[in-house]
Amino acid sequence: MLLHYASLSWLHFVLAFILVGALAAESFILRLPIDSRTARVLLRADMFYGVSSVLLILAGISRVLWGEKGWAYYQAQPFFWAKMATFAVIGILSIAPTRAFMRWVKAYNADAAFAPPEAEVKKVRRLVTIEVHLIALLLLFATLMARGIGQS
Description:
Number of helices: 6
């Protein structure tokens, strides 16, 4: 059983690192001039980000249902709910950058001379930066949750 719990934990961590890596890549790439190739790379990084987030949710649900601590632990843990709310906010914030990346690639396919407006690039960069900062907050909540802090 111990190997089962460790495997669920490992999978959750690997997917979280992939998600953070993809988000960091987006943040870095958004500092470059956005051309056709850059827009496609952003969209590819965003695909990794999206797929890893869905798989991370599934791995997290698996840990809650079949992990060592079980649902009773998590439902009573306020930092679990803070972590879930933060993850939901990050997910909502990620919609606008994804849509922008898709729009940019489509525009480049239609017109090779297309250039996204600088104001839009700055807005997308700001949203991705906010997501990165919220990941740090999420990690704080995860740490507090794992230690049982805040539990009655």
